[in-house]
## 1
Amino acid sequence: MNKARTNPFNNIAMHGALILYTLIALFPVFVILINSFKTRKAIFREPLALPDADSFSLIGYQTVLKQGDFFLYFQNSLIVTVASLFFVLLFGAMAAFALAEYRFKGNTLMGLYLALGIMIPIRIGTVAILEMMVATGLVNTLWALILVYTAQGLPLAVFILSEFMRQVSDDLKNAARVDGLSEYAIFFRLVLPLVRPAMATVAVFNMIPIWNDLWFPLILAPAEETKTLTLGSQVFIGQFVTDWNAVLSALSMAILPVLVLYVIFSRQLIRGLTSGAVK
Amino acid sequence: MQRARIRWHIAVFLAPAVLVYTTVMIFPLFNTLRLALYSKVDQERVYVGLENFRTLFFDPIWSEQFWNALGNNFWFFVVHMLVQNPIGVALAAILSHPRLRFAALYRSAIFIPTILSFVIVGFAWKLILSPIWGIAPSMLDFVGLKSLFAPWLGKEEYALTTLALISVWQFVGIPMMLIYAALLTIPEEILEAGEVDGITGFSAFWKIKLPLILPSIGIISILTFVGNFNAFDLIYAAQGALAGPDYSTDILGTFMYRTFFGFQLQLGDPHMGSAIAGGMFAIILIGVCIYLFGIQTRMRRYQM
């Protein structure tokens, strides 16, 4: 390898820049997490110190667990995210299979129609969506959110999955047809398992925006029993602004599940992002 | 024989996706645009044509808010383009360096803010920048710049830029990842050919890599544009629906929310809300069209 690309000075400069930016990226998260375990006095006296035996306190978490219904919020977020992902993947894969596998009149047009939603945000239609949910009685139910997120996720899912399904070998499918498998069996038993990596990519792409969304929970399901974790922590923090222990603990409780999920899925997510799925 | 019978399975495969997508996304989109042409008079919905848009653009009270939100939104976008995307490209360029150690670790760490919700990000920064808590001023004091501190989120002249920078902090991971992916596809032979001609280091980046990743920069630009022009959550989480101080952080998303739902003494007005949504739709459409027809088709793509 050439000298200029490996010289030690460059190497130090590169690590320096990356470490600096990593610190900038992690600092706020770190400050919030450590201070959530401290007494009120310690939070203000030494905000950057780690909690020690003297300053350690769980008072904030106690307030949060007593006052807020965080388990319910968490459960709602989980239901909405999992159900939306399930429908996005199932419906998206089915439509992608139809577009990739069969030649029929209007195939290209259908593909374009479904791709429209990649660039146009669903939020533009909020006024009419709310009106529709009120008319159908779905407002303040988790179904309203699941439907919206499913519709929001479908365009990109169909686009990415159909690209992958075109790569599944025709011989394999034709062999299955000769063996008398129905088209449905070919899809569910042959093609779906083969595109599992692409499905995982679509899932992690959709997971973060759904889990973190504030707009639709605020508008479609603001009732106490349907609040998601994002909306729940927003409302809770708004009410407890002056109780720093509670605010910091609530923030930490909202950060931790996402962080855990990220540690589990980060490899998948980064592979998905860098596999050139977005072209 | 195949052709004679209707292939029902195609319809079955397509139906659920098309049905959900059409009823929950496309239909409400057009219905919202239609609602913008109506107004409520004496509890009844009446057709008023383009009256709402005239109010929005020319009525002094409305137009002042609208242009303020639009202008703020443009500034929000400009900050992202000038700060987020160059930092993202720079980080990606460093990360893609061959044989850099701990690259995966840096990549994962720098991406962490992107996975957090706006609510967390908004409040976390609000606390850190808060003069009551004093983390920001004491850190500035540490480097001897304490005089620079101001309650940035509370000052009209700084609040919007501060929020834009917070949003940059949150989303730098996305351009970083996409550019990183693009840089990885550049074949080693091209870089080696450059080296033979004496092009290395920085000039290799400017003269060889950058032209090759221009299409990806185009994509992150349009993603940034669409994302910024329907942004809402961060401003709402940090500054509330009133987008204070004195509307200085109001963008189209918060303006639409306030108009649609009402706030304090003003009643919500779905029709004016729809008109603002129509305006957002037009802006995003224009942006996407400029990208698709003006930029993407003219960009030179190199066979690699």
## 2
Amino acid sequence: MKKSGMMRQEERMGYLFILPFLAMFAIFKLYPMIYGFIVSFWDRNSEMKLLDTTFVGFDNYISVLKSRSFWEAFGHSIVFSVIYIAFLMVFGFLAAVMLNRKFLGRTAVRTCFYIPYVTNMIAVGIVFKYLLNPTRGPVNAIFRLFGASGPKWFSSPVLALPAAAVVAAWAALAFHIITCLAALQEIPQDVYEVADIEGATPLQKIRYIVLPYLMPTLFMLLTITLINSFRNYTAIVGLTGGGPGTSSKVVSLLIYDDAFNFLKFSIASAEGVIFTVFIIIVNRIFTKARSVWENR
Amino acid sequence: MGEPLRKKHIAFTALMWVLAVMMVYPFIMMVAISFRPAGQAYMPLFASGIMTTLRNYEEVLTHPNFFDWYRNTIVTVAVTILIRLVITLLAAYSFSRLRFRGKAAILAFLVATMMVPGETTMVPRYLYFQQIHILNTLWSIVLPETSEVFYLILLTEFFSSIPGDFTEAASIDGAGHGTVLFRIFIPLSGPAIATTVLFSFINIWNNFLDPYLFINRISMQLITPALQFFQEQGGANMPVQMAGSSLALIPVIILFIFTQKYFVQGVASSGIKG
Amino acid sequence: MKRILTVLSVLIMTCASVFAMGSSEEPAAAEYDRVVTTTVTATYLNETWFNTMNADFEAETGIHVDVIPVPGDEDEYKAKINIDLMAGSDVDVVETLGPKDYSRQVSAGFFMPLNEVVEAAGIDPYALYGANLPVEDDGNYYALPFKQEMYCVFYNKALFDEAGVPYPEGPWTWDEYVETAAAITDKSKGVYGSLMNADLPWMYMPAQQLAIPFYKEDGTCNFDAPEFREAAEWFKHISNELGVQPSVAELEAEAANWNYYALEGYRLAMFPQGNWFTRLLNSQEDYPKDWNYGVAPLPSAGENGNNNLVSLGYVAINKNAAHPEEALEYALWIAENQWKYEGGIPAFATMTEEQQQLAFGSIAEASHGQVTVDDLYQNLINTGLGSVSSDIVGTAAAEYYNIVKEELSSYNMDLQDIDTAISNIVSRVNEAIANAQ
């Protein structure tokens, strides 16, 4: 009798404690998601139709799925994400391994690696436009030393998107370094000592000690990076503005343009919903892959 | 240490320093541009004939709204972090320590919503905030930011790692859950809370899109998007924006440098590392 | 417990301060008897003339002007004011980008019709503004033009001297322009004879001068007219093949910063620009340069293309204005006076000599003898050219503009041929037009 009373009380407290969070979440996070879903079925595609709107079913979805610009942006978003994720996963890990070793001025060097993370993306964009300027930037000056004219970076339709992805990843690197460093510190020292006695090379150490220890961390980072890689509006606006032409216009830019430049709110919401469904599917695949890997 | 090993070590140290300089080079460039006239913004770091001027800083600091932006940002960051900490700590305690029906399902649902990037919901958020009249107020930034699932997971995982004996001992003493949370859990979770505060601080401070979208009054704007006010016909006034960015960065950098050791510590002891 | 209380009280205090800030949104209301709010581009904020103008207005009428600046470039400005008006803003006066988005804003019902109130104020706008008055199909006008930007060619005298080429003079044609540019272009020194923005209307400027309509009679896209194709091909030809000006690919690298590019050092000989460009040319502090500039009229695009390009700025009153009376006073005053302060050209149908002196005097003075009032008047206004709008107008103007810019950029960067570019433009614009209806 007493036990179930305790249980009831614990349950009440349980709900009470999560209530503030859930309430804020429901009002300011969940409701907009649902609202966006609803708006995508109505016709709010011009300023005149904001009050006088009609239900149009899947019309918005059909016109989004039929539009060339959506699929183009969709492709760009995927390219951006793949490069962004690959860069962060590889270099975040490598930088952490290197920064974990002891050397002169390690703390200062670490700080240098973290600085890009706190700098705002718009300022980063302005500076990188200069650094990667094909004719006057210092990066291409290095190419010219070797007699090559160097790539055109942001003004090249082929390179603009990858270059933007790399710069955005560079700016986010600190999070990966910090997380990997934290995990690296958990590796017991004696494991290294054993490896040293057996004469393992640094590469072998990474392959057989560090990687297995860090696998859970890396999987978790992968999930977070996957989500973050779609939050790329500021980076793209700051670096390429979606150009040249439309060659780096990603979905988030398309949504912004359609909604706020052309005032096609329903079309933009439908684009958001379709893209979200895609992200959820990709994430399911990742989760599946992780569980397969863990159970192997 | 043997001679070849020593050489290797020196080479490694040198490499790290070169990389470090490359990492901060854009930042140095930003500060350098902020001292130049607009026409010379895009010239090499040590080019000849570059003029130095304090005009850009003068323009930023004498802008009638500059201190409004700074104050708005500080207030937004402070209020958001406070509310976020209070409601997230409560929820994290509940999710990690209390048994109630539907717990796993609720948590799973929350985690699933993390998949929806803010960018895809900017339209409904705009329309909705307009309806509830919080556009053009700091609330449009503060309120949606308070319930961030990422930090809930972080703190939940951290609380789960605290040994169970603590709670049991406390509940035998007849302490309520509130007391346990505030007397035992919060004092133990210094690094995790520090991590939450720091990450929150950086993210909110540098948030561009949300305030840019939701705030249309110059005196209500936050510092990062407010730098866009330094425009001139034909484009952005680059050196002035750089001067503003440099000034905006001061608090973040100071906070970061003095607390960076907690970063690794906090992450190490919390759930992020997997 | 004490700690919780401290945390709570800090929380409450900070929340209260946010609340206090939320409500301080209309601070002016209490301090002044009569107030008018106006939305302008953030560019104005750095201009002393703007503050002087509002101070003079306040001195004259007793109405305090509360400024709501909008950040960003032209596109962002346009998007922001549309969003703000749509959200039911009660700002009084809006300075818009002129014809660009006008019909759309009018059909969205953003603005107040001005016919009755303006005429009641004893002004004959038809006589004053002539063809510049934006009369809609319903016979009403919803805005007053307060300035016009005229196009012309600014040139770098030093580069002309160095190449031994005589300074350009009007009237001239685009062929002569290209010849002149070719004579000065010297790639080995990094010198280009010309600079045209990778933007509209430069990418098809002659077609715009020929006043080729953007819509067919049935309201669909007319960009498949041969003149547009020809002009677009010509633009690419002189940039990519003749190489007398930087290519679109090269300019894209500069993104929003082409003005730095234009003014940096000793590189570009001629730029067809609006008269606003004098502000940069005259600003020795922001854009230090060691050469003098001159001004020539815009080249003609042939017999039917003897037109200069003009872009107008409009001042309109929000339909939901909180202070409609003050709004009208301010709007009328702006239309009559802003150009005097800004150093621009009024949108009047004709200009008296005194007005010319006023309009160009300050520019000439700031140029320290590089150009005179007469230079400016002869090459901007008295050019013998007619005038056409430099903008794409109509219901789907914003989309139209973006689509043309995107597709022609891709064409200029050899990503697609001209046929694909034009057929893409036509199909995408038609889709946008259909959506807007």
## 3
Amino acid sequence: MDPFVEMSVRLGIPLALLVVTYFIGTALERRHYASIRERESRWRNLPAITIRSIPSHWQVIECTLITGSVVISVDYFKRFLAGLRMIFGGRVKAYETLLDRARREALLRLKEDAVERGCQAVVNVRLETCRLANARKSQSIAGLEVLAFGTGVKLLNVP
Amino acid sequence: MKFKPSLPEDGINVSHTHPLREALLLVGGVVAIGAAVATAVAVAVDLAAPHIPIELEARLFSGWIDRGVEDDGAVAPRERLLAQLLNRMARHWPENPYVFEIAIWDQPEPNAVALPGGVIAVTNALLESVESENELAFVLGHELGHFHSRDHLRGLGRGVAFSLLLVALGVGGGGSAVQLASLAGRFAQRDFDRTQEIEADRFGLALLAAEYGHVSGATAFFEHLPELDGPLEGAFASYFSTHPLNADRIRALHAAASEMGWALRGERQPLPLLSPAR
Amino acid sequence: MILSNVETVPGKQITNFFGVVSGSTVRAKHIGRDIMASFKNIVGGELKGYTELITEAREDAIARMVQEAESLGANAVVNIRFSTSSVAQGAAELFAYGTAVTVE
């Protein structure tokens, strides 16, 4: 193969992919954060706590299991950064937003599930994470699943 | 126990380094490490290569090249002609420890390579493009130069040792990082390759002068050969290529010839018939 | 900041509660440590580099969780839980979460 073409292919395609995914990934992340912030302030009045016991002045009518889960992955650019970071060690900054977004999104979905079921609070909230999309090939997909679950309570007196 | 609706401060769970800054830092680090490791490997191999015994080399690498021996066991005529020319050139290198063999490869690029074990491979395209015996003699002399400084082992060793290191790193690190380091490493090693080419050119030139009394034809090969680098041009081409640009080599050859007082002009010998049809 | 992994802070009374606060982190060790660990893995025993890694990650996550609680004006986090995942090989990812409260 012509050396110029060969080098363009070997260097150019990954480079172009990095640039494109950087812009797309950044835009998607910004949009997701905007949505997270908006919904967090909308549901701020709904208490979700890790405490198991229900405050004594709440009068509970009914309770039910509430869940919220999400699977998200990062863009190629951030995966590239994380791959390089593995060599030097330290905080893998590229993946921090992935964890942050996944956790907040799961908690929001938990609250939204609670609202849908007519609950006014969620107690004994637990978070579980697992690597879902990644099982087969170790580094091809960096997907993260976060499951939030808790007990939703319907109250007579809204707190 | 009262509920106080409020939200924690945003952005505590993420670092605020700009991703592009992080990218620049990490890429810079990997490139530096790759280049440093490749250079260290190249220096180590350069030091070790001259100490590998010729017999060991011959034993390790014999019998892996098609030498153009015909079905009845006789050496094909073109190979025989080339071997005769090669032996005439090698006579001017009396301490030569190798027993050389010629292989002709059917490939579209005009090229010649020195292979471990004393094999010199030339392509059909090269044989068709040369116009005089002197020119071909210089190409063979150049390859003898590679054997003289054991470049074939050095080039091979550099590549293999560096690749092995990368594989070891690849077990722990990401794929993209390894690729980046390997690219940086190959750039770092290209100066070693180029120095070898220039030195082999000088060796070939000396053999040519000793054989014919002049060095006419030495640069002819580069002059009518299209740049190996194709459409790459200028500084870019010179940066990426492992071989010096043809123009640079011609300049270096002229300089060497005038330094040694070798005549650049002289009668060139006609070439024996070499194209595969005949 | 008082941290506890039971429902209450023993000996104190919860006056206000805010909601879930959490800290998360992803950390890795440099490649030399990874290679040493893979050798150590052959004979078994403690992988010191990775013990260190998990400790650092846990401290990091707790510090961030505490920071979130402070930003709410809480003085304790109760019923703290940890959760781990593995997005990337050789990296430790940790969640620490609990309920931010004020106690008296």
